[in-house]
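Following up on my earlier message about 1,3-dihydroxyacetonephosphate. Here are the inputs again, as you asked, copied directly from the submission form:
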Amino acid sequence: MEQATKWVIGNWKMHGTLAANYELIANIRALIPTLDDRVGMAVCPPFPYLVQVAGLLEGSGIALGAQNLSANVRGAYTGDVAGAMLRECSAQLVLIGHSECRAYQHEDDELIARKVRAALDVGLVPVICVGETRAERESQQTQTILARQLDAVFQLLDTAADSCIIAYEPRWAIGTGVSATPETIAEVHGFLRSCLIAKDAKFAASTPILYGGSLAAGNAREIAAIDNVDGGLIGSAALRAEEFATVYRAFLGV
Ligand code: 13P
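Thanks, got it. Here's what our run produced:
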């Protein structure tokens, strides 16, 4: 997949119906008839809707993403979905390590790193989600946690060949309606960029770092203007076409 320099990605989480998906994509396409090369757009519906949404996106330039995948290639893993299956359903990206998967499905750093490798091995671009909890932030552990989450992934990455997207999603800002402040976002994104540079400067320059957590129409312009913020990973606002389109335009700077 051609890597845009910025991305606006909708994570639909466990929302949607056949009818609602149809309407949402039709409305997004009506609001943004043509994408700008500088800012990619993607939507990540639940697994059962991937094929439907792939059809709805045809000719739009909007990329399709999945919300997770198995670290394994195939086999007796009831309930899991393999990367090759996602590719066959036209997915180009996959969210990995989302804080809801870390929290509710107890995914740890080692498993997440293996999932990133599995995604890359079948040609999916992993959107690697990192973030701290409120307790971790309050005990000044944010940088330690983020460095640990990134380091685990770096172990299995070939930065000369692999193409990734990073998403900073502070757990305490997800679904709360209260995003991180611009100062916090600037500080954390600067830190994440420095971690990427320490690993591989060329990789750091070509890896978008997205912000996620109560990013919506009302704060998108302010967040889009922050250094080292290369797009957004949007939850609830991605379920409303008008709001999602407004966030996209904010990252385009229009
Ligand atoms: P909200 O935008 O609903 O806070 O969700 C963010 C998120 O978790 C995107 O992955």
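One observation from looking it over: The two ends are 25 Å apart (CA to CA). Hope that helps, and feel free to reply on this thread.
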